[in-house]
Design goal:
This protein is α+β, with helices and mostly antiparallel strands. It folds into two domains: 241 residues, QueA-like; 79 residues, Beta Barrel (Thrombin, subunit H), CATH 2.40.10.240. The radius of gyration is 20 Å and the shape is globular. 41% of the residues are buried.
């Protein structure tokens, strides 16, 4: 199967630049993967497609405000770092912009010296290994100085940092938001619980690789980026009981889906586990845990559009994306949603 099989032309004006004022007022396209029927709704209608005994699985990762802008100590030149992965307490892997100014041994400061940094190594794909020095709690300083690492296709500055967080975010560590979850409100989640639907949480810290297109011609040659995940015993028990009792497991977002499928030990059964996953799901994959998926509309030729094609069928997805474009759906992180049921 070729990467070009997942290409579509997206008019630039359909790339959502701002979140909607009310999270659950986004549009919702519903695809029935058995009948291929497509229908149009609003996200607050999602409760009508969930039944008592089902289980909704949410990724409770929280985005790190990891975009920091400072100056070189020696020249005063401007420098931007995007924190990707914590190596140990005060050492991080980061992207540097412009990279030529971030040679090993170069020192930087941020917030008039509130935070100091030195480049101590070169990481994967030209990233830098940065050691920080500071007084106090690193997370508190970062919350004060850092900006949200919005994807490159979103150009305006985000006024409210919490709009790039889900309302249930808990464990900080992501370089990007699990965007399918941005549509949920506390009220909607409560209504879902009242209806008798279980809610379970997993954690997968989203890496920037999630935005990168697949660059190889043959998708089987693509190497996925690795991301850390955790599933505790309570979540594993809820999911196993749901499957045992005939309920459906609905993953919210491709990150929840990849987490669940990574932890599957057999069809319909999952285990408590944590670690790194580089699972690549594309057409032909046999899902072991999830029955349905709530997701946003993804970039052409990305591993994410391949994942949703594995669940709904490539032709169905490409057809639904064409309809979404014709119907002026909003795309990508702050865009509208899709339910594959």
């Amino acid at each position: 199967m070729k990467t070009k099989d997942f290409y579509f032309h997206l008019p630039e004006e359909l790339i959502a630049q701002h979140p909607l004022k009310e999270r659950d007022k986004s549009r919702l396209m519903v695809i029935d993967k058995k009948t291929n029927e497509i229908s149009h709704h609003h996200f607050y209608d999602i409760i009508n497609f969930l039944e008592k005994g089902d289980c909704l699985v949410l990724n409770d990762t929280r985005v790190l405000p990891g975009r920091i802008i400072g100056q070189r100590v020696d020249t005063g030149g401007s420098m931007e770092f995007l924190l990707l992965k914590r190596k140990d307490l005060d050492t991080w892997q980061a992207l540097a912009k412009p990279g030529r100014r971030a040679k090993i041994g170069t020192q930087f400061e941020f917030g008039n010296g509130l935070l100091k940094a030195e480049v101590i190594g070169i990481g994967e794909e030209g990233s830098r290994i940065i050691e920080f020095k500071y007084d106090g709690v690193f997370e508190d300083i970062l919350d004060k100085l850092g900006q949200m690492p919005l994807p490159p296709y979103i150009t305006p500055k985000l006024e409210d940092k919490e709009r790039y967080q889900t309302v249930y975010s808990k464990h900080t560590g992501s370089a990007a938001a699990p965007t399918a979850g941005l549509h949920f409100t506390d009220k909607l989640l409560n209504d879902i619980k009242v209806k008798g639907i279980e809610i379970a949480y997993v954690t997968l810290h989203v890496g920037l690789g999630t935005f990168r297109p697949v660059k190889v011609e043959n998708i089987h040659e693509h190497k996925m980026h690795s991301e850390y995940y955790n599933i505790d015993k309570n979540t594993a028990d809820i999911i196993n009981n749901t499957k045992k009792n005939g309920g459906k497991v609905i993953a919210v977002g491709t990150t929840s889906c990849r987490t669940l499928e990574s932890a599957a030990i057999e069809e319909g059964k999952i285990k408590e586990s944590s670690g790194w996953t580089d699972i690549f799901i594309y057409p032909g994959y046999k899902f072991k845990i999830i029955d349905s998926l709530i997701t946003n509309f993804h970039l052409p030729e990305s591993s994410l559009i391949m994942l949703v094609s594995a669940l709904a069928g490539r032709e169905n997805i490409m057809k639904s994306y064409k309809i979404a474009i014709d119907e002026k759906y909003r795309f990508f992180s702050f865009g509208d949603a899709m339910l594959i049921k």
